């Protein structure tokens, strides 16, 4: 009499079970081997510190990368509210060196960008226009340069309110060509 290779219930086949188990283990091993081959991202590190400017008191300094040229960076630092002056520097080599943006602050006489000396903020839109906002005791002074800081057009009434503090720029495209510019700030009651 021949033995039936299936179990008594007819649902269990030892050969099928072994084949399934071997395939399953093979798939797991393949998944582990592919996962192990992925390179791990490098741990972020900081490079050598670079001094970007020596004017002003140097607090609340920001950094902006020009989206139209990743090697062009801008930074600014406020002087003080009593000085009516803040300073801007730029880098044309991806942050290795910084130079003073002479068009932003004259050596003597009236400040060429705008009055301020309080919190300063720079921003760059997608077309490479440089924007600068400086806090005064009365309002924000805002300005724009279409030539990377050689000259600025200034408005000393950047926001409709007078009791404002720390400001930030954000851009959506090119504000001179259908995009938007946003200037947000802290406000006192």
Mean pLDDT: 77
What is the H/E order? Answer: HEEEEEEEEEE
What structural class do helix, strand and pairing data support?
Answer: mainly beta
Number of DSSP E strands: 10
Strand order, main sheet: write it out.
1-2-3-4
The fraction of residues assigned to DSSP E strands is 25-35%
End-to-end CA span: 98 Å
Most strands sheet: 4 strands, antiparallel
Low-confidence blocks of residues: none
Helical percentage:
10-25%
Quick structural gist:
This protein has 189 residues and is mainly beta. It contains one helix and ten strands.
Describe the secondary-structure layout.
Blueprint (H helix, E strand, L loop, with lengths): L13 H24 L24 E5 L2 E12 L4 E7 L7 E2 L19 E5 L5 E6 L4 E6 L7 E3 L8 E9 L7 E8 L2
Antiparallel strand pairs: 1-2, 2-3, 3-4, 5-6, 6-7, 7-8, 9-10
Offer a few descriptive terms.
189 residues, mainly beta, 4-stranded antiparallel beta sheet, 33% strand, elongated
Protein architecture, described:
There is one protein chain. It is built from one helix and ten strands; from the N terminus they run αββββββββββ. It has 189 residues and is mainly β. It has a domain at 62-187. The strands form three sheets. It has a four-stranded antiparallel sheet with strand order 1-2-3-4, with no helix packed on it. Strands 5-6-7-8 form a four-stranded antiparallel sheet, with no helix packed on it. The longest helix is centred in the N-terminal third of the chain and has 24 residues, at 14-37. The chain is elongated and about 85 Å long. It starts with 13 loop residues before the first helix and ends with a strand.
